[in-house]
Please model this.
Amino acid sequence: MSDLLLTWYGDDFTGSTDVMEALTLGGVPAVLFLEPPTAEFVQERFPAARAVGVAGVSRSMTPAQMEAELPPIFTTLKSLGAPLFHYKLCSTFDSSPSVGSIGKAIEIGWSIFQPDAVPMMVGAPPLKRYLLFGNLFATVGETTYRLDRHPTMSKHPSTPMNEGDLRLHLGKQTIRAIGLIDALHLADSDEQITARYTELVNQGCQIILLDTLDQTHVEKIGRLVWSLQSERAIFSASSSGLEYALTAHWQQTGKVVKPPPPPPVDRVDQLVIVSGSAAPGTAAQIEWALANGFVGLRLDTSKLVDPAQADAEREAQIKAALAVLDTGRSPLLYSACGPDDPAILATRQRLNELNLEPASVGYRLGTQQGLIVRELLERTGLRRAVVTGGDTCGHAARQLGIYALEIAMPVAPGAPLCRAHSTHTALNDLQIALKAGQVGKVDYFGSILSGRTP
Model:
C-alpha cells in the first residue's frame, strides 16, 4: 500500500464524505469505507485509490465506547502504511468530555502512533470555518459567529458549544499541553513557522493548534504538516481543512495534479429524503423543498425512540411515503425543522420517561430512519436518496448495507452526491448524498433531484 498518501477516520459520516470530496477533487482518488478494509481488498477492488478512510460515529460516543471501538480501527488503518493518519473531527468541534471527546480520541491515537505532537487544523475556509488566535468561528448566511454564539452550535442537543477558545474547550477533555501557531506566526516564512512548531514541541506542547483564516494559511499549513514526516506516520486530529491544505501543497509541488470536475449526473423524476438534522440551514432547505413540489412527512420521533412503538411508527411513515411516491412526487421525511422545534424537547422527555440514555437518541432515530430509506428504495427501485444530519447519516448508512463510497458529483462543499457500494444488490450503485445539517444552499434538495453542479 505504498501508493497511499493518507488514511483517515471520520468521527461522523458527513464529515467523512467531506474528506473524501476534498481529496478526490484535489487530485487524490479516495474511497470511504464503513469498516476498515484489508490492504488486499483495497488493492483488488479499488486499485487507483491513494487515500482510504473509515466513516465512524465516534462523535456520538462516550469515552468508554470510543476506547472499545477505535483502537482496532486505528491499528488496521495504520497497517495500510500511509505516511499520515487523520482523525477527522467536525469543523464545528462537536465534542465534550462525556460525548465525542476529541481529547479521548487523541489519547487513543497517541497510544497507537506515538507522535512527538499532534498538529490540529480545525479551520476550513472553503466551508466558512475559521480559527483565529485559537478561537473558532463559523459563518451562517452573511454573519460569522464565534462558536459559543453560533445559532446552532451554541444550542447543539448533544454537545452545545459554550467556549469558543479551543484551548479551553479541548483542555476539558485532555491533560496534554496545548500550543498555538497563530495568524501572526503564519505571516512569517515557512522556515520560521517550522521553527515555531519545533519550539512548541520542545516546550512540552503535545497538541498544536493552527490558526486558519484564509487560503494563504491553508497552503502554509499543508507544507508544515507534510514536512513532519519521519519513520513514524504523522498523526493529526483535524477538520477536513487538512485535506484542503495537503492537496494544495501536493499540487504546488507536483505530487498530484488537480483533475477536471466530475461530469454532472442525470436528472431523476423522484428521490427519497430523510432528515434527522435540527440545523437552521436544513430547516431552510426543508421549507424551500415544501414550497417547490416536495411533500413533507413529519416523523414522530417520540415514537421512533420508544422500542414499543418504533416499528409501528416506521411502517406508518413508509406507507405514507409510498403514497406520496405513487402521486409522482418526492417525500421528505423529517424529524425536526430547526433547533427550536418542539419535537426535540418532546423526544428528550420521552427518553427520560422510558429511562433511556439521552445520548442514545442519535442511534435510535438514525437506525429507524435508515430502515425507512432502505424499505422505500427496495420497494420502489429508486436509485437516488438524501440523508441529512451527521449522526443520522452514520447510523442510516449501515442499514443500507453500504460498505464503501466514492464521489459521483460535487453539490455543495462537504456534501457531495456519492456512489454507494452495498452488500444489498438492489442498493448497489445507489446515488446518495449524506449531508451535515448546516451544509448546502437553500435549494440543495432541488440540486440533487436535477443533477445540477454548483
